[in-house]
Design brief:
Belongs to the iron/ascorbate-dependent oxidoreductase family. GO terms for molecular function: metal ion binding; oxidoreductase activity. Residues 88-226 form the Fe2OG dioxygenase domain. Keywords: Iron, Metal-binding, Oxidoreductase. The structure is a single chain. This protein has five helices and 13 strands. It has one domain: Jelly Rolls (Sandwich), CATH 2.60.120. The protein is α+β, with helices and mostly antiparallel strands. Strands 1, 2, 3, 4, 6, 9 and 11 form a seven-stranded antiparallel β-sheet that branches. The chain has a four-stranded antiparallel β-sheet with strand order 5-10-7-8, with no helix packed on it. It starts with a helix and ends in an 11-residue tail after the last helix.
């Protein structure tokens, strides 16, 4: 987490570049507080967080570079934060390895060969999002949250947090409950795409961030998603005449674009 603190996304840094420093659908940009509203039904203002988006490095000459959700990363100046890019790229490689290990466990849990998902993740969309939450107490009754209630859009989220509490998850049995921070551990969230692929056998994790301490908080979220053109449709093992598919087929890329369009104005009307 020291790397996050070295690159606190302060207003002076963001002032050096516009909020959307590349076309937003390339998923390589900075966000400022109140830009992202994850739960419009209950939020009176946008999330009180800011951060970067980085992704798997792609050559500008690669055909992939022309795809939505792909493109050049916009790194902080090396002179301002020495070693930051190298540390983030090393972290992404480690998360890619961890993500593939988790995919094998998911496959085994579904009664599939352990390498079932491998072919869908040989060009994965990996989005790394270092986040800084403002030292501002949330007011849920007034619609003010560090991050509004939402489930993550993709396959898996590999989350690392500092020692400041704030993350909450929701279950039908308990309602909202705190997730105690354990800096030595990862928190793994299941996303909407996995729920779609498994016809609801694996449920995505509804969660939010509520600042109860008034302290600033840092987290590092890695979103681990299939190749852009992967067909996402109900696995045969997850449906039956009694349990027909709940979702129509789509692609990984279009699923994410549709989801982002609901919370990011820059994605509206963008299609694969």
């Amino acid at each position: 987490m020291d790397a996050l603190r070295r690159v606190r996304v302060c207003s002076s840094f963001i002032a050096m570049k516009p909020s959307w420093i590349v076309p937003p659908a390339q998923q390589r940009y900075t966000t400022v507080p109140h830009v992202e509203t994850l739960d419009p039904s209950s939020q009176k203002q946008g999330d009180t967080k800011e951060g970067f988006y980085f992704g798997r490095e792609i050559s500008p000459e690669s055909p992939e570079a022309k795809l939505p959700l792909h493109g050049p990363n916009q790194w902080p100046n090396e002179h301002l934060v020495p070693g930051y890019r190298a540390s983030m790229e090393q972290y992404m490689r480690a998360m890619n390895e961890l993500g593939h290990r988790l995919l094998r466990l998911l496959a085994l849990g579904l009664g599939l060969p352990p390498d079932h998902f491998d072919r869908f993740f040989d060009r994965p969309m990996i989005f790394l999002r270092p986040l800084h939450y403002a030292p501002k107490v949330s007011a849920p009754s007034e619609g003010v949250f560090g991050a509004g209630a939402h489930s993550d859009y993709g396959m898996l989220t590999l989350l690392k947090t500092d020692d400041v509490p704030g993350l909450q998850i929701h279950t039908d049995a308990t309602g909202w409950m705190d997730v105690p921070p354990k800096p030595e551990c990862f928190i793994i969230n299941l996303g909407d795409m996995l729920e779609r692929w498994t016809n609801g056998m694996y449920k995505s994790t509804l969660h939010r961030v509520v600042n109860t301490t008034g302290k600033e908080r840092y987290s590092l979220a890695c979103f681990f998603e299939p190749n852009f053109d992967t067909i996402v449709e109900c696995l045969p093992q997850c449906c039956s005449p009694e349990r027909p598919p709940q979702f129509p087929p789509t692609t990984s890329g279009q699923h994410l674009l549709d989801k982002y369009a609901s919370t990011h104005a820059g994605y509206a009307n963008l299609k694969q």
